């Protein structure tokens, strides 16, 4: 996925001279995860450059550049570090189109590694996506595989509005399914690890069905897509798994169609349970599918606590927890 993200930026920079990439350590060093490695050497220091350690400064600069016609794709080194930039994102970037009556847009992309599973502790493992989905004017993307990551990132860079692009860091090197006791499977052995060269896009706001089933619908995104697939296999339940890919805009039609068919629904995300994005999905399912539901909708999520380093795999919603939720809704 690291290579796919890098390829998306490379393709976009080659196609459009207005695309610029910057952030902490993204230039000479190539980023802490090497997602921007080689871009500065290829495009020069004016189009791929390092910034001071100031998230507010990074995003504020990107907004100013965007207002003057550039297309910044910036990196926040970890999603946990985005809070100093939250004011710029919510009060400025998200509102430029509205407050200028369409005279200005803000075509910026803010990339950030998100989620846990790497023993990063409380300041390198957060999943703050719900904080952005509450803000009118932002788009929020969470890919689950390299193929989608490249196509969605190119689409985000070409989008005229601000896009939050959250990259599950536990998926950078393989499709992690939550079985931490097993060897990591590389993307080279997964169908969605095959990423075409050159330019292609995936529509923002369109979910993807990862597994067809008739017994229960599982709605997930990011790393939890692979956990949900593993849980369904482990439990032997005929689950239909939906990969949202885009949280805002949300593909509600795909969710409603599936839940109407199955009559049951489990929503899985890694972020804290209370006020997580899963609460919005549950509300929408109840609103649109109430008369088709055979059981209450169940959420599987992180605890309502800072991400615990010592209890990483208890906090992390693994296939065991998801499997128990599947069994619960099937028995209801």
From TrEMBL:
Transketolase-like pyrimidine-binding domain residues: 1-174
Keywords: Oxidoreductase, Plasmid
Keyword Oxidoreductase among record annotations: yes
UniProt cofactor(s): thiamine diphosphate
GO molecular function annotations of the record: branched-chain 2-oxo acid dehydrogenase activity
Pfam families in alphabetical order: Transket_pyr, Transketolase_C
Enzyme Commission number(s) of this protein: 1.2.4.4
InterPro entries in alphabetical order: THDP-binding, Transketo_C/PFOR_II, Transketolase-like_Pyr-bd, Transketolase_C
Organism: Rhizobium leguminosarum bv. trifolii (strain WSM2304)
PANTHER family to which the protein is assigned, alphabetical: 2-OXOISOVALERATE DEHYDROGENASE SUBUNIT BETA, MITOCHONDRIAL, 2-OXOISOVALERATE DEHYDROGENASE SUBUNIT BETA-RELATED
Protein name: 3-methyl-2-oxobutanoate dehydrogenase (2-methylpropanoyl-transferring)
């Amino acid at each position: 996925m690291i290579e796919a993200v890098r390829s998306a930026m490379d393709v976009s920079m080659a196609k459009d001279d207005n695309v610029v990439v910057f952030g902490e350590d993204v230039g000479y060093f190539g980023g802490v995860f090497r997602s921007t490695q080689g871009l500065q050497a290829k495009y020069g220091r004016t189009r791929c450059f390092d910034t001071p350690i100031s998230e507010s400064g990074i995003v504020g600069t990107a907004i100013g550049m965007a207002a003057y016609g550039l297309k910044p794709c910036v990196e926040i080194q970890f999603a946990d570090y985005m809070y100093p930039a939250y004011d710029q994102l919510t009060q400025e970037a998200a509102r430029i189109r509205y407050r200028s009556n369409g005279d200005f847009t803000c075509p910026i992309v803010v990339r950030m590694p998100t989620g846990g599973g790497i023993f990063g502790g409380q300041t390198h493992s957060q999943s703050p996506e719900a904080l952005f989905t509450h803000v009118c004017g932002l788009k929020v993307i969470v890919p689950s595989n390299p193929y989608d990551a490249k196509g969605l990132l190119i689409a985000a860079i070409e989008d005229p509005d601000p896009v939050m692009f959250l990259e599950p860091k536990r998926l950078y090197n393989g499709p992690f399914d939550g079985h931490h006791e097993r060897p990591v499977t590389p993307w080279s052995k997964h169908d969605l690890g095959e990423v075409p060269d050159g330019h292609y896009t995936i529509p923002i706001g369109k979910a993807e069905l990862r597994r067809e089933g008739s017994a229960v619908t599982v709605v997930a995104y990011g790393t939890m897509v692979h956990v949900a697939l593993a849980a369904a296999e482990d439990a032997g339940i005929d689950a239909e798994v939906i990969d949202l890919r885009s949280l805002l805009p949300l593909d509600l039609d795909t969710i409603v169609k599936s839940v109407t068919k199955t009559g049951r629904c489990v929503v899985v995300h890694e972020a804290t349970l209370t006020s997580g994005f899963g609460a919005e999905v549950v509300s929408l399912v109840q609103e649109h599918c109430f008369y088709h539901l055979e059981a209450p909708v169940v959420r599987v999520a992180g605890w309502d606590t800072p991400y615990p380093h010592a209890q990483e795999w208890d906090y992390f919603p693994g296939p065991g927890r998801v499997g128990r939720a599947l069994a619960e809704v099937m028995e209801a």
